Structures
1.
Amino acid sequence: MNGIVRPTIDDLRRAADAIKGHVVRTPFVSAPRLAKQLGLASLRLKLENQQFTGSFKDRGAYYKLKSLSADEAKRGVIAMSAGNHAQGVAYHAQRLSIPATIIMPEQTPFTKIERTASYGPRVILKGDSIDAAAIYARELAAKENLVFVHPYDDPYIVAGQGTIGLEILEDDPDLDFLVIPIGGGGLIGGISTAIKALKPGIEIYGVESDLYPSMHHAINEIPPANGGQTLADGIAVKSPGALTRAIVEENVREVLLVDEMAVEQSVGMLIETQRIVAEGAGAAGIAAILCHPPAFKNCKVGVVIGGGNIDSRLLSQILMRTLVMDGRMATLRIEIIDQPGVMSTITKVIGQTGGNIMDITHHRMFIDLPVKRAEVDVLVETRNANHVAEIIEKLEQAGFSTRRLSSRSGEG
């Protein structure tokens, strides 16, 4: 492959031979419980979160670096990334003894910077966005004669990611649909090349955040409209690649857009139902099924879980919010007469209904209440939303005006 040309199925096979034993041959697991929840005939998940650096980027990064000439490898490589591509390039450059420079935006989370730096590259923080970092990376590459390793618009990168498609077909060629996240398009470009060459009857859907619909808008000739904070930051790309766009236009049935709540819900569902940790971008395929259920109902679906590099604090927030959305955790605001014995009555009522009190906050200074009345906020662990309603009903019957402060519908 010379220059920016579309990789072929033979290129993907060469990539598979080159990366064998150097990246993880990830499992394509069945997920029957999640399939039932989503209304599917069957569901299989390609677990790229099990790669050494936590994402599919290991594949393309290794294959690209392995393709370098001796002179290019000696000069060294440079890449711009705020996360997974940075780690993939840094890790495999270290393994191959290739000098590496990684340009990351100045606002990149410390954990991602430290993880990337742990593989030994020169890390430079530059610019307020990935686009600004990319401009600087190009300038530095020219100045220092470094090989620029693009995160997606490179035939070796695309071919490396496409090895996922070969593995999927080896494990289960009997799918109706395959759902793949899209950032710049390297992942879906590579996988769709394999699928359409070997099993063209499988329809491919791409997925993007509705805050960053760059590929969707490009192929539908809609003016760009990107921006905002998204949980799916791994696919928050403002401009798709020219190479990858051409592949998507030919191979992909449709690019679906998903909202933030669906992405969050999908991260929660994967860990709750399948015990699989996925970052927002990695869970985007599940979000697509949640947002567009008629397209997949009663079908055999495969979903690529692209990565699992999610911040632990963010994951803990999502898990707690999942409990709230599912009705297994609720904050109840209860109006009381501020006198001895009332609190014991409230706890007794909640206990008799099977609720588990996690925390209580007493409010006496709310000026919209009479001086002899107060409110308490009670955080209760429950079985489900119906159980919450039962607890509220019992409290009302005991004479306590009660409302829920947090719910899926946002009441309170």
2.
Amino acid sequence: MIIVTGATGQLGRLVIASLLKTTPAAHIVAAVRDVAKAADLAAQGVQVRRADYDDAASLDAAFVGATKVLLISSNELGQRVPQHRAVIDAAVRAKAGLFVYTSVLRADSSELSLAPEHRETEAAVRASGLTYSLLRNGWYIENYTGGLAGALAHGALAGAAGEGRIAAAARADYADAAAAVLSSKGPVEPVYELAGDTAFTLAELAAELSRQSGKQVPFHNLPQKEYQEMLVGVGLPAPLAELIADSDAAAAKGALDDDGHALSKLIGRPTITLADAVKAAL
């Protein structure tokens, strides 16, 4: 039985969709906090079980029969480590044969403010005694293409990444990677450094947006603090604005660049191109 936590999230749904291409639905468990939100998955034959990170009994019930467990990292910043530990402990009690975790690119050395919680989780996974595979995901290209409508409306793309190159890939690319590891009949690597095939700068993203939209959209590089304040000014919650600005600043130092091509090798196809990502967003 393959258990997928966070199965109703953006990545989780894509992982299950990918798994369904090779794995019988009855062998997949969507472990979710709100069962009602997974009605569409249940309709496809996927088992839906309640799993609350703050309720160990619910995790034990959800993990019955687990052979493989995918922990998709929680989105509750600051609470991730105890929540992740609860899932790891439940997987140990269930005697899962493989534990897979979605970490962050080069978690052991990354300057991203997101990295410490991932590092702590990775340490807990290693200490658990479980056979594991750490999927160190790079940046989702949707993190940038999701804001292109605003860039068009304001006539500029803002950021704080400077000339830093970003080897982003689509959520669907990372989802296919997770599904490939979970459905593998043989041994898997303990660590995968996953990123897009072709890195780009935000200036190159702005140029591609300009080309496809027919409207000139320059890239305005801002100091980290100024960019953070701008994001708050357009309505983002302060913690999220701080996270985005920090990520851009780290990208300027190379934190989101990678040329290993491990992701495309794992999924057996190229990752999404910048042009196709912009086209899809438009």
3.
Amino acid sequence: MMPSQRITLVDTLSDRSAAPAVVDQVLLLPDLPRHSGWRAINGVILLDKPVGVTSNSALQWVRRLLAAEKGGHTGTLDPFATGVLPLCLGEATKFSADLLNADKTYEATLRFGQKTDTADLTGAIIEETAALPSMATLDAIRPQFMGEISQIPPMYSALKRDGQPLYKLARQGVNIERAPRQIIIHELDWLGFKENDDGQVIQATLQVRCSKGTYVRTLAEDLAQAAGSLAHLIALRRTQVGAVTLQGCVTPIALHQGVASLNQPLSVAALQAVGLMQPVDFLVQNLPIVALSEAQALRCRHGNPCLAEAGQSLPAAGQCRLVFEGRFLGVAEITETEKTLKIQPTRLVSAENF
């Protein structure tokens, strides 16, 4: 039996006088034995982050599990949120930027009638109202929040002011003015409602597909305000980042069990064979592949441009993946010259992987 612990969300966020929100489930994050040393692990882990764990804690746990010397994630999820969290290890970190900027899809559950200082269930209740919306009202306000809209980031966020994260200032009771930012809501649909005996909505579930930089907690508050009420999030699940969906994501428990079933020492090939890890170029799989000749590969591996060769099939322009003898070399930009096409490497895997 793997060790378990009960998660108190407020412990991961701040010191507050309000009673902490305790998760009703038991979260299993197995303790990991010490390893003999870090090693180069190159690939992508598609993690289904559990509730009560910070994104960085999840990343560091995976790094310890695999003894991976380098890693990063592709966009922070709040501790109380769950869902898609792609983790890049080793060389894959070089290709995470596109996913950081990608659209994201969430399912969010709002509780009406109360506002908290964090806009979610981990915070202290700071305002209450008896005014609750109807389903008709919530349907009517939905078009106001479609397309490009303005949003003021919350104080409990990782944004910085003079080098200080806003959430640290918020914990000190400091509230500073934040400039509104433009975000894009591509899709916004109510998935379900929970009503009281008077037909008023006390809880609702929302699906939203939005641009980078969108705070769903703030969106929930703004929706409630437009409906003449107050609200905060009691659940948030990220279901998609770019082209990455929950399908194919693995929970920490399943990852731990899968790794334990493999022969030691672990190899990237073994992890990929059982579906626990994706290849280095997974996050740029939408880019067309350009197969290089030996001469072209030799130039590109040093960051030098090369020209298209006779009979070589290339996209007209734009980004592409460079491959030599089936091995991924990196990403390049193709541009037109007066007579031919030029291949300019922009991000390459390290030389030992050629």
